[in-house]
Amino acid sequence: MHNRHQDGSAGDANYGVIGAGYSRYRQPDPHIAEFIRQALGDAATVLNVGAGAGSYEPVDREITAVEPSASMRAQRPAHLPLAIDAAAENLPFPDQAFDAAMATFTVHQWSNLERGLSEMRRVTRGPVLILSCDPELLERSWLHAYAPEMIAVEARRYPSMMSIVAGLGGNAEVRPVPIPLNCVDGFGEAYYGRPERILDPGARLANSAWSFVDPSIGERFAAELGRDLADGSWDRRYGVLRTQPFFQGSLRLIVARP
To answer: Which residues form the Methyltransferase type domain (predicted)?
Structure first.
């Protein structure tokens, strides 16, 4: 069953609420984009499923974008193609219509993962790319020490790497994607070396996991982190991260071949 919000969001997060400032905090990061570009190879036509505001869509190829949330479709910049109102589980395209397909930070929103992945495989001749987080690795981040409830929610929402590989037919490689220090795509781990940034409520709102925990948890998080930054205890524990060029967190790119 589709859990459709008023604005058409198909998943468990209401992007009618979250969507408003989302693209201010969630810009495609060039380092992460390069992993996607390389995995797409020479594909000329690319389907982007759960395309949102268009993050990571390569502009040098013919893109078809699919996005069920009206507020996310409305945020797509003018230079990108208009997104089609459709969901992963029922793609309105013939078999093998595209050279490649991609889905970034979206599979955890789908109502039926297996069906969505098999639909992506059906309409794609070449590689299918999924950018997601490995739920088993989320505790690597210092965020876990401050907001274990939020990390637990994240871990429950993200599908396992094994289930994504299986859903794509098994012939897939799971590649770690190191997160750069000045990552401009503000998912949780992106702030690993810039803890002050995540004190901004807007930064937390653009990471949908915070909308699944009681607001008091976000308030407690900000109070405790703010205190530890002020008295230096965060830096004593984690200060080395401030200059660490990359963080090996939970980010993974699954590349499936036909």
So the answer is: 47-125
- Of 15, 36, 34, nearest to 26 by C-alpha is 15
Contact present, 114 and 232 (Cβ < 8 Å): no
Residues of the chain with pLDDT under 50: 1-10, 12-19
- pTM for the predicted model, two decimal places: 0.88
Cβ–Cβ < 8 Å for 60, 86: no
What are the residues facing 102 on neighbouring strands?
A: 48, 129
- Crossing angle for the helix pair 215-230 and 148-157, nearest 10 degrees? 130
Q: Are 204 and 147 in contact (CB under 8 A)?
A: no
Q: Which helix (DSSP H) or strand (DSSP E) does residue 104 occupy?
A: strand 100-104
Side-chain-side CA neighbours of residue 139 (13 Å): 5
Q: For residue range 185-197, list pLDDT tens digits in order.
A: 999 999 999 999 9
> Token match 């997104």: residue?
83
What are the chain's domains?
15-256 (3.40.50.150)
Structure-block tokens of residue 107: 């599979």
- Return the structure tokens found at 200: 């901004």
Which class for 6: exposed (0-12), middle (13-18), buried (19 or more C-beta within 10 A)? exposed
Q: How far apart are CA 63 and CA 11, in angstroms?
A: 23
